[in-house]
Predict the structure.
Amino acid sequence: MATGQCTVVVGCQWGDEGKGKIVDVLAEDVDVIARYQGGANAGHTVHVGEEEFILHQIPSGIIHPGKRCLLGNGVVLDVLQFFEEYEALAERGIDLGGRIGVSERAHLLLPFHKALDHASEDRASEKIGTTGRGIGPAYEAKAGRRGLRVADLGGGERMEKRVHEALERARQRMGGGPDGLESEVRESLKLAERLSSLATDTGRELTEGLRAGKRVLLEGAQGTALDLDHGTYPFVTSSNTTSSGAGTGVGIGPTAIDSVVGVVKAYTTRVGNGPLPSGFEPEMDQHIRDLGGEYGATTGRPRRCGWFDAVLARYSARVNGLTGVAVTKLDVLDTIAEISIAVAYSTEDGGSTGEFPADTWSLESVRPRYETHPGWQADTTRAKTLADLPKNARAYLDRIEELTGAPITMVSVGTERTQIILV
Ligand code: IMP
């Protein structure tokens, strides 16, 4: 029976909700932070004083001295990117000694996965708009039982054979592939040997930690609408981003999880292709993108922006079993005179629905039904409590809470660690 506390932090929109900031704040009070899915497609930006850290694979908790950070079995580990990040953190004076653990069962993401990702996007008639980080092909290999895991690294000839076969298969699929692919793979595998010293059984480590009273944070990447099963398929990523993926992705059972914090931005953004029902008209789109700095942390791509979509938020609350909601970037709306919330979708057949549809093509043609709220047109960036917020900002949050159906527990009003309201 677990005696510690285990919390999952999950994105409730299309990723980029500001999970990095929320994890950074919550990390203060936990002992271990673990990533449970995804790979270097994620980009978590954390601001500490004048410094900005963008992390793709290592949990953002690493910025907090002494915390243990794990990459679970559900992660596809990009070896080159991982060590680049590792070295960059070490160069900036972060003490990493004994602080990073990598699941023995995590799959390796190698250069041919990235080449396959690019080739597949180039050829597709309907492009996903992936980050190009090799995520789909790495999870395909995992599900196809052809993957290479951290635990396989000492496998000698058997490992060699697998690598050779994987490379050949990739070449066949690409009709050749980029020059130098084999030497890049060799370089990755050489580097990957260093992973053995970081390898751990994340499930055992977390279970024992929880039994000993430790507090654990399981950090999701991307968001609910990008979940392989529950998102806007096929415009999704290739892993289970939702809270149920957390147990599978680190190796603990669902009964070990105590709470699930869902992160929503005070408006909506999406990067990559696929429908965004509450998307803005071009002028407002650019305005909010500029105000919110809405450019991808991994690819630099401009994010599409839109009003808060309560249909999606309510769906996310249900799918993730949220116990609390963290609203981020409220301050981005500080200057907006009128703020809308999508409360339902009008469908092509003249009907209306409050449910997030499984049919992604139909989602492309729905028209959101909006309710409009007066903006607060005041600075929220120094608010420390809900009472410090303008009346209209509080009313906006109350409505988000009511429509989402889960209590708001945190509100972020700026990029700094200190710009947070704990409810
Ligand atoms: P992939 O994960 O690179 O295969 O990309 C699949 C979809 O997920 C694309 O629409 C990407 O833009 C999106 N995506 C992947 N990672 C992130 C992220 O961290 N934030 C936002 N969107 C993401």
